[in-house]
């Protein structure tokens, strides 16, 4: 039989704008392989759960298009892929470039065996990182000039259309059964609430979501900070898994802004958020240790607290601060949290409780269905004060004021806080059901000590920052 065109799937679970898939197709009938390696098993619970949904959606789509599904093999890529190449006679292995450090390490190991028969393709970013450089030829370290430069240059080459026809490779070895894979049993805690709250996965769902969002993007700029409204795109999961490419988002949105002037301002603002994602990835490529060490090296000596009772209370959504607890409960049950609330929750942990941002980062790594190694690390560092920002550590979010401003009728808080003040909502009940034994799952009330704790925390944070500055 003809040798296959071999596609190593890791992210980029899509057919549109997928140069790796197109390159594989040119070489023969498509054999798409997913390698279930130790790094995948080590992913956080929510990202693993969401990854499986992406894989299943892609598999179903591939079966519809070609009659063949995804081959799932267990092992390490440097063992599994060369074996597969030998068995099938594939000329090359094509992969969509996903410049996450663990994946880059895996690519390096495969390259040691296969050499330049491993071919990486773009598609994860709007533009090649080397293309955006400051006047002095350096890397942009501040968002605004980065965004200006990117808008001026525009994304790389046009979006590649999805292939019209795909011939599948039918002589591949037998792999694991995708229907019984169950990568994340740890996500099914409490009653089966996930299916109720989960957003549909897959490329078609991503395109549909983008389309619906753009139809009413006009108020995005004014409403995007309101967790009580459904004002943002909800595309982050799809972008994180590559079910849609950022260039597709950019191209469709730009066309729509021209065709539908009332939505244009909202769409422009939306694209500036997509550029934040891009900025995060460019930073991660330049600074691969962004999830481990402060982006501003002077912060390495900052006296963050590690494990503590306060951290445990934060992880369990028992801080007594309504907006903070509501956000953490939402994330536990759904794997999602509104951006404004993420900032407040992270600020409470790092600025009021003076807890090491890496503890918060790890909790988010485990809990977010839109987990993105670059966005998560950059944003945690940004909130903690050691990340890329013009005025980093003076910003301390006051959760009470944030709640008044962005959740003015307490609708968001009520949704997630059982008995605060009314009867439990479906969401709050789901949270209560999900809590393991030993957690305080009594209806939420604002703890008596919350005000004092907040004032004390803020004072401690400010004093610490003052001391830090005095040392400079
Ligand atoms: P929209 O408002 O519709 O924005 C459109 C897209 O722009 C998003 O889908 C996302 O891809 C990108 N985007 C928006 N805001 C940001 C941002 N601040 N940084 C980078 N990209 C952004 N986002 C993730 O995708 N994964 C993460 O792991 C993640 N961790 C975060 C941790 C913290 C502490 C904070 C404060 C933010 C984090 N974000 C993360 C960014 C942001 O909260 C989410 O991207 C956003 O809430 C997703 O909702 P949306 O798709 O409706 O966003």
Automatic annotation (TrEMBL):
Query: Which residue range or ranges hold the Photolyase/cryptochrome alpha/beta domain?
Result: 3-126
Q: Name one Pfam family in it.
A: FAD_binding_7
Specify whether Flavoprotein is a keyword of the entry.
yes
Q: Name one GO biological process term.
A: response to light stimulus
Q: Which UniProt keywords apply?
A: Chromophore, FAD, Flavoprotein, Lyase
What does the record list as coiled-coil region(s)?
A: none
Kindly list the residues the record flags as site (Electron transfer via tryptophanyl radical). 304, 357, 380
- Family assignment from sequence similarity: Belongs to the DNA photolyase family.
Q: What is this protein called?
A: Deoxyribodipyrimidine photo-lyase
Q: Which organism is it from?
A: Gemmobacter megaterium
